[in-house]
Specification:
By secondary structure, the protein is mainly β. The chain is 5% helix and 40% strand. About 3% of the residues have low confidence.
Length: 252
């Protein structure tokens, strides 16, 4: 379901000067200057431009969206595409709720288990552009701004990010009422599909081809299912505690 992005220039196409942050983004000028964060031309999920975030020797390097005004009590959804430059990856999407823009604002404690501040890393290396979608818990009381970033940690390979869309997640949650549901990597190029949500319980997963034939009927194990699918487009039906949602899956 199409929604109007709350962010601007999520595809990074408006980035005329590689030494400064593009419109709609924040990036440390020092990191841009030393190659830790780099404008990439000719390799993108959408258009011609993406951003590469290198792996530091300690801690993390990050790039993210400019502060976005939000409404407390509302859920938000981020969709982004990523690929990796090697066989290891260790990064997070990090959505920080704050009580105002700028350095003078302070963090607001999120709901316990908020997927925007997941305790786990994304550790699936992919050589092709892959989409991830994450829905937050409700924005906590007192929060007026979301500071959304991509953090690439030490012991990771180069991380490439493109085509970032942040949207009001209320409509999405109403139609797909499994809070925080994420099905990735998408497109899928291997045999392991991850199906996660705010709730860590086991989920039933059924996958159907374009003719409506069920080709997979299984349950998750530690958030993953093993599949062996031919290249094509599929519909993934996820059931959790009587709630059901569907996602389109592309297999390469």
């Amino acid at each position: 379901m199409a929604q109007t992005p709350l962010n601007t220039n999520g595809s990074l196409e408006n980035w005329p000067d590689a030494t400064t942050a593009p419109e709609g983004w924040f990036m440390n000028t020092g990191l841009l200057g030393n190659g830790s964060i780099t404008k990439v031309t000719g390799d993108a999920a959408d258009g011609d431009v993406s951003v590469k975030i290198a792996s530091p020797s300690t801690s993390y390097y990050q790039a993210g969206l400019a502060d976005i005004t939000i409404t407390e009590g509302t859920q938000y959804t981020v969709s982004f595409w990523y690929k990796t430059g090697g066989d290891t990856v260790r990064f997070r999407f990090w959505g920080q709720w704050r009580n105002g823009s700028g350095d003078g604002s302070s963090s607001v404690t999120p709901a316990e288990g908020d997927p925007f501040q997941s305790s786990t890393f994304i550790e699936t290396p992919v050589g092709e552009w892959t989409q991830v979608t994450i829905t937050s818990s409700a924005a906590p009381a007192g929060a007026t701004v979301l500071r959304a970033s991509f953090r690439n940690y030490s012991n990771s390979s180069d991380l490439y990010i493109d085509n970032v869309v942040l949207s009001d997640g209320t409509a999405s949650v109403k139609d797909n009422n499994i809070a925080g549901l994420s099905v990735y990597p998408n497109p899928l190029s291997g045999n392991t599909l991850y199906v996660t949500s705010n709730n860590s319980i086991e989920k039933s997963v059924a996958i159907f081809d374009v003719l409506g034939k069920q080709v997979v009927n299984t349950t998750t194990s530690n958030g993953a299912v093993n599949v062996n699918l031919n290249a094509g487009v599929y519909i993934v039906k996820v059931t959790e505690e009587g709630k059901t949602a569907t996602r389109k899956l592309v297999v390469r």
